[in-house]
Amino acid sequence: MKRLKNTFYSFLFLCGFFISFAQNITVDEGFTPQYLVNDILVNSSCANVLNVSVSGGNFASGEKSFGFFDATGTSFPFQNGIVLSTGKIVNAQGPNATLSDDGGNMGWDGDPDLNQALGLSNSFNATILEFDFVPLGNKISFDYIFSSEQYLLNPSSGQCNFTDGFVFLLRRNGDLNYQNLAVVPNTNIPVKVNTVRGAGTICPPANESYFDAFNDINHPTNFNGQTKVLTASSDVIPGETYHIKLVIADEGNHRFDSAIFLGGGSFNFGIDIGDDRLIATGNPLCPNETLTVDATQIGATSYQWFQDTNLILGATNPTFDITTAGDYLVEINYGASCQTTGTIKVEYAEALVLNQNSFTECDADNNQDGITTFNLDAIRGQLFTNLPANYIVSFFESQTSTSSLPSNYTNTNPDSETIYARIMNIQGCYTDFPINLTINTFDEILVDETVGLCENGIITLDAGSGFSTYLWNTNPPQFTQEISVTSGGTYEVILTNALNCSKTKTFTVETSSIAFIEEIIINDFQENNSATVQIATSSLGDYEFSLDGINYQDSNVFLNLQPGEYIVYVQDKKGCGISFESFYILDYPKFFTPNGDGYNDTWTIKNLDKRNLQNNIISVFDRYGKLLKQFVGLGEGWNGTFNGSALPATDYWFEMKLENGKSLKGHFALKR
After folding, report:
1. Contact at 8 Å (CB) between 449 and 463?
2. pLDDT tens-digit profile of 338-356?
3. Using CA atoms, how far apart are residues 380 and 389, in angstroms rounded to an integer?
4. How many CA atoms lie within 13 A of 228 on its CB side?
5. Closest among 535, 540, 573 to 557, alpha carbons compared
6. 3-class SS of residue 376
7. Considering the entire predicted model, what is its pTM?
8. Do residues 318 and 273 touch, judged by C-beta distance below 8 A?
9. Which one, of 231, 129, 223, 224, lies nearest residue 184 by Cα?
10. Where are the strands (E) in 267-335, listed by range?
11. What is the end-to-end Cα distance of the chain in Å, rounded?
């Protein structure tokens, strides 16, 4: 149930009654039904209205649920008219300060025709205005506003389906079924609180373009909300008798009144001279097209045509040829005192001027196969010089296709393809426009390069010849085939070919330098002698190593070295120079033959001076550890004797004391 309006509103209403009264509608219950229809609703000398009747609430106070309203000087859209309510119409007067909630417990029934039209079985408090009429023209229409207390600004979730119902029922005499004219425009949906409602509450909006507003206290009526001005209309047959029945009723119970305001003088017996020809509805006239409009009516005595409210001189025939856009009206006179009108609005489709219909893209991926993606949204904006904003352009693979292409379209035919642009919302004025798509390729193969730059050096980067333009990512940019650089980094050049397609080539410049040999670590006196070349961490290059200056290896370790002198060469792979340094591999003899032949008669370790070991003491022992001889590295060595006596052929051991406190030990054989 809807909450009662704030009593503060009632206080404001009482305080401001005399000031604000003129800003609110007033009602008058004193007019007869015949007068309400003939003089208020229709108000036309052409009207032939019969059998008018009104029924509504039988209030004990004598007040009525129908009557005349006057809105002169207020913000209400109608100046005057008829109001039909599910309560007392006196309570429809503004401001919106009290709850209009009449008709309870008084045996006020609903209406079976309304129930049938809306699919209800529980209507109450029906107010009914009905009459017969004979139309002169082929169309009738009238304007109305639906207002209701059930347009709640702060409803609970259970109140979103609260609504009252109303119908405008029309049928030709002799027909069995009514047609309901009170529907949402261009639909069959009956107008009710929950079918026409604005946003802003917890209840979902519905057809909100037809909703006017939720009202505060200052509204000219005493209702919480209302629709905009809506028009009920129908085609009719001139000269036939029709019955119209206007009904409003509460749904479910008597609570929360609603009302229908019928605009005074809005019941129009008009002439339908054809549908409007509008761009918005997709049926404008095509450029240079002529539309012949026929307003011929039986019994008419004269015709006069107008364009944009201006009289068209000489246009007094029933038919008229329209050749320019405008709002056209024809006045049709039936004698001296009766006149009807027909209107038609005509717009012309723009004569489109083609700006461009050929578009070229470069193949964007690495596979230069002439297949790429086109942005059809961008193409759409370049097609015509004068495309109106409300024209809808779509693209199709062929002139018979019905499925439009996506915005990002990938061609299916390599190198070139034709698609078609179609104006979608204007039918019959334009043939499809062929759009030529061309795909250029960049066939040159680019290979990224990594090059070395020697310390404090300069190098030239060559992007290759045969391109139209060059763009390097240097600061500032450079535009030549070759550039010179003095620092490492990544250099990119955008190359553009004769077809205006581009690719990027990347040069990675790595700074390098000649090697600084920090140390050669020698591991000798072994079965597998080796040397490891250590390069200083300050050296920037990528190096390779050699012992002959010819054959190089990536490893800095050399294995299986025989005793002797070596030169190690360290070469920068990027050409920044070669460093070299000599080293010695030492070893002790594994045997000697002291036989006096002058060859290998003594045992010693040669070349100790090459490693600065010449002053180390070498001791020789027999197998039992007995010291047999001591000599310095540069001494004559041991001749195989002890105390002048030759020792037997067998194995002997040695030890060489090193300056770092360590010692080198081994054994050798004496042979005779």
Report:
1. no
2. 888 899 999 999 999 999 9
3. 12
4. 10
5. 535
6. helix
7. 0.58
8. no
9. 231
10. 268-270, 291-294, 302-307, 310-311, 319-322, 326-333
11. 131
